[in-house]
Specification:
Shape: globular
Largest sheet: 7 strands, mixed
Order of helices and strands: EEEEEEEEEEE
Number of helices: 0
Distance between the termini: 39 Å
Low-confidence stretches: none
Length: about 120
């Protein structure tokens, strides 16, 4: 059973870079697909990006210029960096995983989820 745990600061100032880490247990970072997904207040889930089994990364076109996803195989972790944040980036951020490729905002399409972490962008 894969378990995911997000970690990172809950408050980020506008124009700064948001950095989150997802720690994976019960499975390898190199055998599943891993994703970052967020949910702004009052809105649906937004697929942000993914890192594939090969290590290749994929990003939402609307966030691509500000997003970077990477992984550390020695720590079984993957990270999200979102630059130049604004209050519109305030959301609950989730990491998720699946055995097959998924690119959707539907929770049940993914096999595993972290509990989510609230990130607020405010000065």
């Amino acid at each position: 059973q894969v378990q995911l745990q997000e970690s990172g600061p809950g408050l980020v100032k506008p124009s700064q870079t948001l950095s989150l880490t997802c720690t994976v247990s019960g499975g390898s970072i190199t055998t599943n697909f891993y994703y970052w997904i967020r949910q702004p207040p009052g809105k649906g889930l937004e697929w942000m990006g993914a890192i594939a089994v090969s290590g290749s990364t994929y990003y939402s076109p609307s966030l691509k210029s500000r997003t970077s996803i990477s992984r550390d195989t020695s720590k079984n972790q993957f990270t999200l960096q979102l630059s130049s944040v604004t209050p519109e980036d305030t959301a609950v951020y989730y990491c998720a995983s699946s055995l097959r490729w998924v690119q959707s905002g539907t929770r049940t399409d993914y096999d595993y989820w972290g509990q989510g972490t609230q990130v607020t962008v405010s000065s």
